[in-house]
Amino acid sequence: MPIGIFGFQALWSPYFLLLLVLVTILYFQVTIKWRRKFEGEESLTKRQAALFVSSMVILYAVKGSPIDLLGHIMFTYHMVQMAILYLVVAPLFLKGIPWWVWKKVIDHPAVKPVFNFFTRPLIALILFNGMFSIYHLPIVFDYIKLSIFLHSLYTFVLFLFALCMWWPIFNEMPEGKKLSGLKKIAYIFADGALLTPACALIIFASTPVYATYSDSGAWLQAMELCVPSNTLQGLNLSGPELFSNMPLIEDQQLGGVIMKIIQEVVYITMLALVFFDWARKEQARKDDPPAASLTQHESNLIK
Q1: Average pLDDT estimate for 242-264
Q2: Measured by CB atoms within 10 angstroms of the end CB, which terminus of the chain is less buried, N or C?
Q3: Are 79 and 258 in contact (CB under 8 A)?
Q4: Could you tell me the pLDDT band of residue 63, with boundaries at 50, 70 and 90?
């Protein structure tokens, strides 16, 4: 059965698209027109603008396009959503916003102590991966998927924790503690290891574990998260098998595999970027004469 039966609003989320357009306009207003109001402001670079716009485009693709609807029909698409939202969109969004904008937000008295706590490397790793794993426990997953409010809240909070998780790697603030190149590499390895148990639980399960994909009543109720209820009432639907020939267990296992593949691709890319950046800085440090040697050399010239 074609997913077009759910209507234009469910397929393309026009209100969400409008929200992202307004956010993008605000971004350019702040970083170009109003940037003089920020301490330490710098010109917006083409790279930063491209990263931010890319994050908005990809965010719409996974949360506003038919992929979002398919994510409620098939578990495979749900995991594609999760992987791209937290492992691709979050770091692009983080890197796309200049450090002096982040500084303005972070330095707020009500934000700074909370931010400093949640971006501690160990805390950030445990919270993001812990919340991700808890979310995919069947009893938690099915409960959250049946509530528009809880689903939206959990998704938003998990995205905030994803930003905190990526912060120790991409922090560009001039002051404050930063991880060295080797520590960043260890951090990424640890992140990948902590995410593995949740994927393994899904991949190696012998039966479908999520009622919102296997039970027709729960599935229909969960569909209300992205399809207007009046549209669903006018349709005679029995379950996700109407839209896919893939058995539920294979759909579930494929979702876990895809999540793991996307995670590995992203983390290997991040490892390569961090390693080459660290190697470049180490080489530059070796090539430049130490400050003490320069001072001695200048002193000898004066004599």
Answers
A1: 93
A2: C
A3: yes
A4: very high
Residues 6+ apart with CB under 8 A from 239: 214, 215, 216, 219
Task: Give me the pLDDT at residue 101, please.
Answer: 95
Q: What is the mean pLDDT of residues 204-223?
A: 90
What is the rounded CA–CA span in Å between residue 215 and residue 225?
16
pTM value is 0.89
Q: Shortest CA distance to 191 belongs to which of 134, 124, 277, 276?
A: 124
Residue 287 located in a structural domain: no
Q: Give the Cα separation of 291 and 264 in Å (integer).
A: 41
> Do 81 and 67 meet the contact criterion of CB atoms below 8 Å apart?
yes
Residue 103 near residue 173, CB atoms below 8 Å: yes
In a domain, 50, yes or no: yes
* DSSP class of 37: G
Q: How far apart are CA 66 and CA 240, in angstroms?
A: 15
Report yes or no on 44 lying in a domain: yes
> What's the token pair of residue 243?
């839209």
Tokens of 222: 């969960």
At residue 217, the pLDDT reads: 87
Structural domains in the chain (count): 1
Q: Rounded distance, CA 240 to CA 220, Å?
A: 9
Note the Cα 217 to chain centre separation in Å: 31
Q: Is residue 285 part of a domain?
A: no
The answer to whether the CB of 169 falls within 8 A of the CB of 270 is yes
In order, the DSSP letters of 50-117 are: HHHHHHHHHHHHHHTSHHHHHHHH-HHHHHHHHHHIIIIIHHHHHHHS-HHHHHHHHTSTTTHHHHHH
Instruction: Choose between 61 and 290: higher pLDDT.
Output: 61
Which candidate, 134, 83, 87, places its Cα nearest to that of 254?
A: 83
Asked if 127 contacts 166 with a C-beta cutoff of 8 angstroms, the reply is: no
Tokens for 116, please give them: 């400093």
